[in-house]
Structures are given as structure tokens and as C-alpha cells.
Write a structure and sequence with these properties.
2 copies of one chain form a homodimer. The first copy, chain A, has 153 residues and is an alpha+beta fold. In chain A, 48% of the residues lie in helices and 22% in strands. The structure holds a DNA duplex (25 and 25 nucleotides).
Chain lengths: 153, 153
DNA sequence: CTCCTTGCAAAAACTTTGCATTCCC
DNA sequence: GGGAATGCAAAGTTTTTGCAAGGAG
């Protein structure tokens, strides 16, 4: 299970982000980043904006888009595309790399990590002359609960 | 390497698609499907439309969108999302399942397949109680040519 | 003070949809 | 002839952008 990072870690990440990119610390940026790393999930910009607005209704979506784009460029967040037409972001620091198991019935997302698979991905890429910088692996199917529900029906 | 399917196979697929879904055979549908299976790549609707229009300029984008959506629903094509904001489609019949190596610099897409990785994916899923029905694996990085280009710069 | 950021609304990019017309069967 | 399919343009979605105003350093 994923555990949100600590407040201290979060602050360190945000500070690093700001200084590395030479960005100014603003009320909305701090709020957005704080909220994002606190949520620590797979959130669309719209959802993130919703949370942020609860704390400060004056923040515009455009700023959330701009901030998340910068975050992703710094490698501190990963953009994801799960097939609905929305980009989701998830924190990429202070946690292991991981992939996803997605239940196609209830939408549950389980994270997992497997070093042997990653090693084999590297090997495959090398064989094709590629130097891999990142990857995405998603397994779609039914979670335990949904298997039961479907079998019962 | 991917090899486009034969004309006979293509016709059989299209016919099956039409009858299973109870669809009418129209000039534009046949043209779109024919072109799609002949291209046999990872094409956006826009690109596919471009090809189709070369053969018949009267076909509208809407029809291409509608047709590809039907095809994907029948399972004869897979919708893909490689991070640029476009849905791509690729034929899903008459070929092995495969995954993708994507060059982030030039956009080259290489297909590969690896049974051992697939087996391990199954194992991981089982461990989490999932029954996997499909998956997606994409490795992003630099192809050989782009590695050279970047190193030279 | 200077330049980066922001909000707003307009625009862009991609996809879907309503409706009148056309076309299969 | 009747219902399905199409074209067109309008509308929807998601994301980006121009520009004037605001704010950080």
C-alpha cells in the first residue's frame, strides 16, 4: 500500500523543485504542490484543482496545469494516461518506482514493483538498441472482489 | 517486425466485423477498414483520415472516428495512448500480442514480445488476487540513432 | 523595480453529437 | 420504403496560451 510522505519530506521536495528550476515560491504553487504530495495518489488535474480550491478558491485551473507540467518536467511527478481522456499525475519521489494493476470493473488501482521484470525490460530494450529512461506497465483485469461478484452473477 | 496481413485475411476480418455487429457495408466503412488493416501500424485518427482521403476525399473525420470506435469495441483494434494527446489504433487480430519501445526523441515505435515477462506479470497479478485480462507495457527511451545524435551534440 | 506568476478568457487540439440527407438492404 | 450511416458544423472535453494585472525577490 502507498503511504503518503511525511511533511518534512514534502517540504524538502518542494524546496528542491523550486531551487532547481529557479522558480519563485508563490502562494498557489506551494498550495498545489503541498496538496499534490499530500494526496499522493493518481489524480487528474481537475480533481487536484478541486482539493486546492477547498483551501483557496482563488486558484485557477491554468495554474494547476502549469504547475503540474513543471513538476513532471523536473521528474518529481509522472504523467499517466489510463485511457479515459484525462492526464493523471502521481508523485515520483520518496517512493519506489512501481507499476499498476487496474481493476476494469471497479477501478481499483493496486501498485506493485518487481525488479526481475524491470531487469528483463532493460534486456529487451538493449537487444533493440534502446536506452530506456522510463517505462509504464499496466495490468488490466478483475480484482478479487469483482471476480466474486461476476462469478456470482 | 510487423508484417501487414494478407488481403484475404483483411477481407475476412472486415466481413466478420460487419456481420457480428450487424453493420451495413458502406463505401466509407470498407475504405477505412481496408486502409487501417493495410497500414497495420499505430496510427492516429488524423493520420488514418489522411490516407483515406487520398483515396476518397469525401470521407469525413467523423466517420473515421465512428468506425474506429466500433472496431475497438469489437476487439478487432486496440486503442492506445502514448502520451501525446492522441488516440492511436492498432490491429488486434491476426498478430501476436506485443508491447512497445518508444523513442522519446524521434517517435519511433518498435514492437516486441517476451513470454517470460508476460509469465511474470501473471504471477504478480495472482499474488495480488487479480485475474488479468490484458496489459500494456511501454518502454520509453532513446533509439540507437537518437542516442548517437544526442551524444554528438 | 524587474521579471516571474497568475487569472481570465479566448483559443487550440481532439473527439463526440444533432440533424438533415444519403444510402444500403 | 425504412432504418442505418454519413457529412457537416456545432458543441464537448481537456489542455494551452496571450495579455494585463499582481506579487516575489
Amino acid at each position: 500500500m502507498t503511504v503518503a510522505i511525511t511533511t518534512t519530506e514534502r517540504e524538502a521536495i518542494i524546496e528542491r523543485f523550486m531551487s532547481e528550476k529557479g522558480l519563485k515560491s508563490t502562494r498557489q504553487r506551494n498550495l498545489i504542490l503541498d496538496t499534490f504530495f499530500q494526496l499522493d495518489g493518481h489524480f487528474s488535474v481537475e480533481q487536484l484543482w478541486g482539493k486546492v480550491r477547498e483551501l483557496d478558491p482563488r486558484v485557477s485551473v491554468a495554474t494547476v496545469y502549469r504547475t503540474m507540467k513543471l513538476l513532471a518536467e523536473s521528474g518529481l511527478a509522472h504523467a499517466q494516461n489510463f485511457g479515459d481522456g484525462q492526464t493523471r499525475y502521481e508523485p515520483a519521489v520518496g517512493r519506489e518506482h512501481h507499476d499498476h494493476l487496474i481493476c476494469t470493473r471497479c477501478g481499483t488501482i493496486v501498485e506493485f514493483e518487481n525488479d526481475r521484470i524491470e531487469a528483463m525490460q532493460e534486456a529487451v530494450a538493449r537487444k533493440h538498441g534502446f536506452r530506456v529512461t522510463s517505462h509504464k506497465m499496466e495490468l488490466y483485469g478483475l480484482c478479487r472482489a469483482c471476480q466474486k461478484a461476476v462469478d456470482a452473477a
